[in-house]
Amino acid sequence: MTTTTPIDYVHGYSAHESRRLGDQADTLAQLLHADTAYPAGSKVLEVGCGVGAQTVHLVEASPKTHFTAVDISAASLAQARARVTAQFPEARVTWHQANLFELPFADAEFDHLFVCFVLEHLAAPRQALTALRRVLRPGGTLTVIEGDHGSAFFHPDSPYAHAAIDCQVQLQAASGGNALIGRELHPLITGAGYDDVTVRPRTVYADRSRPALVNGFTRNTFTAMIESVREEALEADLITPTDWDRGIADLHRTASEDGTFHYTFFKAVAVNPA
After folding, report:
1. How many CA atoms lie within 13 A of 125 on its CB side?
2. Which residues form the Methyltransferase type domain (predicted)?
């Protein structure tokens, strides 16, 4: 694998995964995007837009911005276009299928870059961030959002649940990605040559007093993501079927009346030096 070849998306491209991504984006929109808005008329490149789950929230917050959304998957782009068109038919979005290491755009073409849940799936995230500087104008901003599976803790605690989560971490690492990348954003972005790098945690905490988060995040986002790698985990002999089933059951237990769940995302903003 070369550093410019994207790795396989560990979660797959099923309809179930598309729904999960939508649930995640909608549930976390306020937490992750409340402070992201771009000036009218500015040009923003969303790198790795996937099925458009984040795109709709970018468009909603900045309706007069010109967005360009890029993904390597033609099928995902088709879903993204349909999703955005259905919700915002007047949205100013241009769609491109492209490898982020080989973007078909002129130097300094964009005022801002937005990269959400992309670096974790790359074998060479720092090189990707460096390559993206070419299309960002001097003084333009970069926004990056990533999670970190090492930040997951919950009640009731369960070694089986942690083992199931670790299966996903190991599978992603085996394919060249990094499910623990959130904690690395500051050194990655500074190492890629950006200035004024600021990284802040965005914490999700769910308990019975926050039913929307329990359902939207604990059940439909995080636990659903772990559940989706069952066959791969068993085929790789990372865990026994019995221990897997107990781990997933214990994850669901954290969404019960007396359960709690915590997870941290990291949001970074940086500037392309002049």
Report:
1. 27
2. 45-143
